[in-house]
Design a protein that fits this description.
about 70 residues, 3 helices, about 0% strand, elongated, nucleic acid binding, RNaseH_sf
Length: about 70
Amino acid sequence: MNWLAVSPDLSPIEHLWDEMKRRLQAQPNQPRNLNQLERDLRIIWNNIPQALIQRLIGSVRRCCRAFVTV
Protein backbone atom coordinates (compact mmCIF):
# COMPACT_ATOMS: atom_id res chain seq x y z
CA MET A 1 0.00 0.00 0.00
CA ASN A 2 2.59 2.55 -1.07
CA TRP A 3 -0.02 5.17 -1.99
CA LEU A 4 -1.38 5.66 1.55
CA ALA A 5 1.27 8.25 2.40
CA VAL A 6 -0.04 10.60 -0.27
CA SER A 7 -3.73 10.10 0.41
CA PRO A 8 -5.08 13.32 1.97
CA ASP A 9 -8.24 11.58 3.21
CA LEU A 10 -6.10 9.45 5.51
CA SER A 11 -4.13 12.35 6.95
CA PRO A 12 -5.46 13.99 10.13
CA ILE A 13 -3.59 17.22 9.44
CA GLU A 14 -5.43 17.68 6.13
CA HIS A 15 -8.73 17.55 7.99
CA LEU A 16 -7.38 20.01 10.53
CA TRP A 17 -6.32 22.44 7.76
CA ASP A 18 -9.83 22.10 6.32
CA GLU A 19 -11.36 22.96 9.71
CA MET A 20 -9.10 26.00 9.99
CA LYS A 21 -10.11 27.14 6.50
CA ARG A 22 -13.82 26.85 7.40
CA ARG A 23 -13.29 28.83 10.59
CA LEU A 24 -11.32 31.51 8.74
CA GLN A 25 -14.00 31.83 6.05
CA ALA A 26 -16.72 32.08 8.72
CA GLN A 27 -15.16 35.18 10.28
CA PRO A 28 -17.12 38.38 9.66
CA ASN A 29 -13.93 40.35 8.91
CA GLN A 30 -11.59 38.67 6.47
CA PRO A 31 -7.85 39.37 6.70
CA ARG A 32 -6.65 42.05 4.27
CA ASN A 33 -2.93 41.31 4.37
CA LEU A 34 -0.46 38.60 5.39
CA ASN A 35 -0.01 39.96 8.90
CA GLN A 36 -3.74 39.81 9.57
CA LEU A 37 -3.94 36.34 8.02
CA GLU A 38 -1.12 35.09 10.23
CA ARG A 39 -2.74 36.62 13.32
CA ASP A 40 -6.15 35.12 12.51
CA LEU A 41 -4.70 31.68 11.77
CA ARG A 42 -2.77 31.68 15.04
CA ILE A 43 -5.96 32.55 16.93
CA ILE A 44 -7.90 29.85 15.10
CA TRP A 45 -5.13 27.29 15.71
CA ASN A 46 -5.04 28.08 19.42
CA ASN A 47 -8.82 27.73 19.68
CA ILE A 48 -9.11 24.32 18.01
CA PRO A 49 -10.41 22.03 20.76
CA GLN A 50 -7.97 19.31 21.77
CA ALA A 51 -10.85 16.85 21.58
CA LEU A 52 -11.20 17.54 17.84
CA ILE A 53 -7.49 16.90 17.30
CA GLN A 54 -7.66 13.66 19.28
CA ARG A 55 -10.73 12.56 17.30
CA LEU A 56 -8.95 13.21 14.00
CA ILE A 57 -5.91 11.25 15.13
CA GLY A 58 -8.12 8.44 16.41
CA SER A 59 -9.93 8.21 13.08
CA VAL A 60 -6.79 7.16 11.19
CA ARG A 61 -7.06 3.50 12.21
CA ARG A 62 -10.74 3.34 11.22
CA CYS A 63 -10.03 4.98 7.86
CA CYS A 64 -7.14 2.64 7.14
CA ARG A 65 -9.24 -0.40 7.97
CA ALA A 66 -12.03 0.82 5.67
CA PHE A 67 -9.50 1.47 2.93
CA VAL A 68 -7.88 -1.96 3.22
CA THR A 69 -11.22 -3.80 3.06
CA VAL A 70 -12.17 -2.12 -0.21
